[in-house]
Each structure stands twice: as structure tokens, then as C-alpha cells.
Amino acid sequence: MKYLFIDTSNSFINIYIVKDKEVLNKKHYQTLKDMANSIMPLIRESFNEVDFKVNDIDKIFVTVGPGSFTGVRVGITVAKTISWSLNIPVYPISTLEYLACVDTKYNKIISIIDARRENVFTGYYDSNLNKIKNEELVSIDSIKKNEDTILVSYDGVYDSAVIDTNIIKLINKHLNDKSVNPHELVPNYLKKTEAEEKIND
User: Fold this and answer.
1) What is the CATH number of the domain that holds 39?
2) What is the pLDDT of residue 190?
3) Angle made by CA atoms 10, 185, 37, in degrees to the nearest 5
4) Residues 22 and 45 in one domain
5) Pairwise CA distance, residues 8 & 15, whole Å
6) Is the model's pLDDT at 53 over the cut of 90?
7) Least enclosed by CB within 10 Å: which of 5, 37, 146, 171?
8) What pLDDT does 195 receive?
9) Mean pLDDT along residues 98-113
10) 3-state helix/strand/coil string of the chain
11) Is residue 38 a contact partner of residue 15, using CB atoms and an 8 Å limit?
12) How many domains does the chain have?
């Protein structure tokens, strides 16, 4: 089985091509702008490097947020387009779970994404990726951790660790999930957009 995994929830484009239990290709590309124009060339390059065609893929996994409003939309749009046009099943993955899927000695993992103004999106997981509590938007000061807890993120914000995702472990956890209709693949923002906040203010 061959899988394509897409993550664009931050300022990074993360592309994985996986065959069974092996990562054949990984792209980790930082872009401060033009993510929409960068992602397809990266995907084409990834497939060329492993001598695959896009329609060789059996399943597509994509992070759906929370994260950057623009970034999340880019990844979802690409995944929806490939899924619909080639009839490849697509599976939504929480960005916070993606970040939490790391190899670590700690029993509790708190994944965070900077949401500005001293706020963060948080996900709480055990070492087997079981969700301990629902994802939420909280003040960074409200997060409590102990010697059995690790804080992980994309960029080391608020003294968190930056650790490579164990993408095989994450895909294996979701292999038996039910795929979604690509037209029903939607972002999970966990907060209002800045425009919505300004209107409410």
C-alpha cells in the first residue's frame, strides 16, 4: 500500500510518501509566502524521486487544523482535488495529533501551536496517541506539565521541543478509519478568523 501525507498547517510544507512501513520520501520545506504555489511542485518532485505517479497512491492523509488559516486551506484543497479527481480515499488528521506522534520516553505529550496573544492550540495525548482531553484554545500560562510530560510544537515556541513525527505510527493508527467524501473535508480552526474577531469587536 502506498500513502501520501500532506501537512501545511504552519509555515512549513510537510510531504511524505510512504509504502507499507517505510518512508520513501519526505519534504520539509519552510515558506513564508506563496505556499499555494510551492506545494504542487514539491509533490511532483517527491513522486519523481521515488518513480511513482500520483494515481499509484492508495490513500491520502491530510492535516485539517488547527493552525494557520491559509496554510490549512492549502493542504485541504490539494488533498480534496487529488482525492476527487483520481478517486483516492482521503482521511483527515488533527494537526495536534500529527505533532504529538513522536518517539519519546514521556508518557504524556502536549502538542501546541502558537495562536498569538499568549494563546495556543493544545492537544493532550498519551504515548499511544490516545486523546486525554479535547483540543482547545487556551492561554499558555494555563498549561500544566510535570516530569512525565513533554511539550512539542513545530517551532519550539514557549520552550517546547521540536521532534520528528513518527509518520508510520500515525498512519498505522488511522489505517482502518473511514474515509471522508472529499467535498466534506473541512478545516478545524478552533477559533474565529481575524476578520471575524474584528467584526465581533
Assistant:
1) 3.30.420.40
2) 87
3) 45
4) yes
5) 9
6) yes
7) 146
8) 47
9) 96
10) CEEEEEECCCCEEEEEEEECCEEEEEEEEECCCCHHHHHHHHHHHHHHHHCCCHHHCCEEEEECCCCCHHHHHHHHHHHHHHHHHHCCCEEEECHHHHHHCCCCCCCEEEEEEECCCCEEEEEEEECCCCEEEEEEEEEHHHCCCCCCEEEECCCCHHHCECCCCCHHHHHHHHCCCCCECHHHCCCCCCCCCHHHHHHHC
11) no
12) 2
Please tell me whether residues 25 and 54 are part of one structural domain: yes
Say if residue 200's pLDDT is above 80: no
Closest CA to 124 of 137, 135, 113: 135
pLDDT at site 94: 98
Which domain, by its residues, includes 48? 2-94+166-191
Q: Does position 3 have pLDDT exceeding 50, yes or no?
A: yes
Mean pLDDT to the nearest integer, 7-35: 93
